[in-house]
Amino acid sequence: MDPPAAKRSRGSPAGPEERDAGAGAARGRGRPEALLDLSAKRVAESWAFEQVEERFSRVPEPVQKRIVFWSFPRSEREICMYSSLGYQPPEGEQDARVPFTRGLHLLQSGAVDRVLQVGFHLSGNVREPGAPGEPEHLYHVSISFDRCKITSVSCGCDNRDLFYCAHVVALSLYRIRHARQVELRLPISETLSQMNRDQLQKFVQYLISAHHTEVLPTAQRLADEILLLGSEINLVHGAPDPTAGAGIEDANCWHLDEEQIQEQVKQLLSNGGYYGASQQLRSMFSKVREMLRMRDSNGARMLILMTEQFLQDPRLALWRQQGAGMTDKCRQLWDELGALWVCVILSPHCKPEERAGWLQLLGTWNKLDVCPLEEGNYSFDGPSLQPTMAPSPGSEEQEEGEVAATGSRHTVFGRALQAGDLHWEDSHLQRILAGDSYSPSLTGTMGSDKSAFDPQGRPLWLGEPFPTACARVDTLRAHGYPRQALRLAGAIINTLRLQRRHQLESYKQQKKELLQKGATCITNPEGWVGHPLDPIGCLCRALLEACRLEEETLSLYPDSGPEKRKVAYQHVPVPGSPGESYLALALEVALLGLGQQRALPEGLYAQDKVVRNEEQLLALLEEVDLDERLVQVLRKQAGLLLEGGPFSGFGEVLFRESVPMHTCARYLFTALLPHDPDLAYRLALRAMRLPVLETALPVGEPHPTPLDSIPSNRFPRWFILGHLETRQCELASAMLTAAKGDPKWLHVVLGSIQQNIHSPALLFKLAQDACKTATPAGAPPDSTLLGIALELGLQVMRMTLNTMTWRRREMVRWLVSCATEIGPQALMNIMQNWYSLFTPVEAATIVAVTGTTHATLMRLQLDTARREELWACARTLALQCAMKDPQNCALPALTLCEKNHAAFEAAYQIVLDAAAGGLGHAHLFTVARYMEHRGLPLRAYKLATLALAQLSIAFNQDSHPAVNDVLWACSLSHSLGRHELSAIVPLIIRSIHCAPMLSDILRRWTLSAPGLGPLGARRAAKPLGADRAPLCQLLDAAVAAYITTSHSRLTHISPRHYGDFIEFLGKARETFLLAPDGHLQFAQFLENLKQTYKGKKKLMLLVRERFG
Fold first, then answer.
1. Residues 6+ apart with CB under 8 A from 316
2. Taking burial as the number of CB atoms within 10 A of a residue's CB, which of 115, 209, 981, 1088 is the most buried?
3. How far apart are CA 1037 and CA 990, in angstroms?
4. CB–CB of 1004/970 below 8 Å?
5. Which parts of 74-184 fold into alpha helices (H)?
6. End-to-end alpha-carbon separation of the chain, Å?
7. Could you give the 3-state DSSP secondary structure of residue 114?
8. pLDDT tens per residue, range 144-167
9. What pairs with residue 648 in β-bridges?
10. What pLDDT, in 10s, does the model give residues 504-537?
């Protein structure tokens, strides 16, 4: 980018040039700094140089030089802030891609030379090695600065990133680290003022000659304007000087490339579907926070630029037009944007006119149709941090009125706009922030200020909603006031403690009434976890930040991802509160927020935010290593949560739609278990409740209608119900695993699971986990835990018995294997009680079969008697299943009973009885084929005749599914002998009306003598004739079928089917000719057709051509 034009005009000389550029530089180590340098530093930081010139008629040249010298930034932190991030470095290239690091390497490699400072302008060359095989690159860098801030940069590399390039970094660091080696000159106008006319003309001509291709047109234009009397240039006193520093009216801020910021945000939003784009936008938000922490005005500038681009996102209008919600990533970015604006508006040091300008912008944006709304039913004007005794009558109606008063359209900027009404002038607030020793004795008015302190004399912060108070803490921390943030956080926690004390007293008075009623109403109209202002997170992060062990360092990677090493914390005492530490306070306030009983908000995103915020808080707590001091805090808070009544999510009575405590309870259970197992189990068992399901189910039905999960349409507001049920299952699994080896707690946990978990899929997962835990490799199994796994499995079977799912087969197999692990008695028990657990098909095909496989018997290691007992149990089961569902279980029963004659006969009789009761021909044929395979042809024949008696194949069903079964039955009867063949012919004639099929059977029977097949017991001398009994009846039936079928086909025949009909007549003739007078019968048949269908001339012509 090109350097800007001169900041202001210069017209008066400043005296002779001082040649010693380093005069007045920093003194040797250990020697006091000169008064001139101390004064010049202060002036250089806060006064524009024009103000210095106006204030003093003549400024000595040495003084000018010291002011100019100290006007360049002195800290590398700001250089780093403006030259790092802007993108998320890929893994393995973090250092190499950050401009600050690259610039530092260039400086250390000696790549910076020809550095010159002329007034408030720094220039130099930076050489950078090229790629392999390429020459090095030379970049000319120019930097303008004012009042210890870089105000503009220019580099030949044409960098198009958000912040300074590596070459600007290298030159800036050179000036900071080697300030005395930089040649220093006063502004160029001072030098020009010492020249006479000839010197000036020579200077200008040499300058034009050196750069004639670039400046000649401009030089000629300026010359023409100067020679023109009355021109604008002649009316202005003095002339511009780009090295003279800023004017009094010029803004004093660091250089920020606004155009590039807008362009990059626009590009990232257009790639919003990619994870990397969201990460880079979050990095930009982190940069805004970093600027705010440095109290850099560019933080607000950058946030304005980003907000404008967010509002210009074309997807907003599209989503609004379609009535669709934002993507989750986009919604999270908007949430962070809104929270940042709250921090900016609440700034404790901004000027009133700045805040007014920001509020005006926010008001304009807030009115835009595309401005996103804040999901959720939160009210900004919630209950104050008042230690109330109990909810006052009519408070719910008042709350509803307040919510309605806020208007139905609450955008993401609504909280920032309302924050504009807040201020920092409250005297009590000022005293809290001013020091750690604020107490009633320091106020001088004990009576009036008594309510502002707790009984221990510690300050409270009352009068505004808890989330708003926490937003103040976040603002103080964001703007670089960490100590003040901790003081206010302490006052807020004192208030919360006092409020909890009064709540417990109130609950004790109403406890009996509430327990009798068995229900309560929500006492917290807005939940603190998942709140848009994230109050609990703000307090925790502020407190934990004070306890970090490592020193604060320059963070080039705020979002460094999985490479982040574990943060270590230490106890830091709280001033004025002996025995307390900020680390303990962070744990206490996190548990207070997580354990708050609160209603689940409306809307998918608001509910998802509750879950996400809860997980973020627990992730913070899991970073803290628990010592004895923190364990005591855990035990105390766990006890208070259990006794918290309607104010606690762990209380004895819950509101129907309160947020479950499963995730928080799992953390507490794991943390408390090594130190106080009894308390850990009590807390986790209390948290197992899911009241929205309990109250929705009919009273007295411990096991609801079995489904994989309770359908969400029964609870249309609970979009995350499936997630909550999964967390409930994880808590139960953690308790089961921990209770291994302790029968008492195992049975208590089992009772809680059976009472509170209603999803069969999750119960099955629990059963599987318990079985796996109970049977570790290389160790004896835990019989109690195995029994619990089996009991859970049995419950799943009962719940899903009438509602088949695709996982039932898997569940049944697992149950059999689990019973096998326990022993033969458990296996026989599920066989004997199969009616309430399995369908007949499952019992016969899975339970009985799997329970008697060779692998199962080897696993059980049974003696002969016990093995026979198990087999008898399985056979009994199979017979019972066959009687209940012969259609699907008869064949499995026969297979299972093969080795026991009596059982096999009973199974066969069941099949015969079922055939009379309507067992389908397909199943009868299947069993008949099985009987033939077993070497029982007569029984197979019997079943085949029963099947044929039920069968009916129409004249046009020549592709009927039973064709192969009929042909097999005919082949079986032919192989048995003439008697069986004679008996089956009437059944064939009665059941089959398809002419081709009848002729096929007839032809097969005439090929060989009956009884000559492999199963035949009797022999015949020669094949049967078609004109003799019993085949003559079949022949007549086949001929009649051909005649009937022909007339049927001719009724609706079309010309395109004429060829098929001629082929059909050809097959009919073959059948006719099997009879002695077949030729005559066929001729009569054809004549009849010709007379009857003489109108079909073309068809009859084809008939004559083929058959005469």
1. 370, 372
2. 981
3. 9
4. yes
5. 76-81, 94-97, 99-108, 166-177
6. 103
7. strand
8. 888 888 888 888 887 776 778 889
9. 596
10. 888 888 777 777 776 666 666 678 999 999 999 9
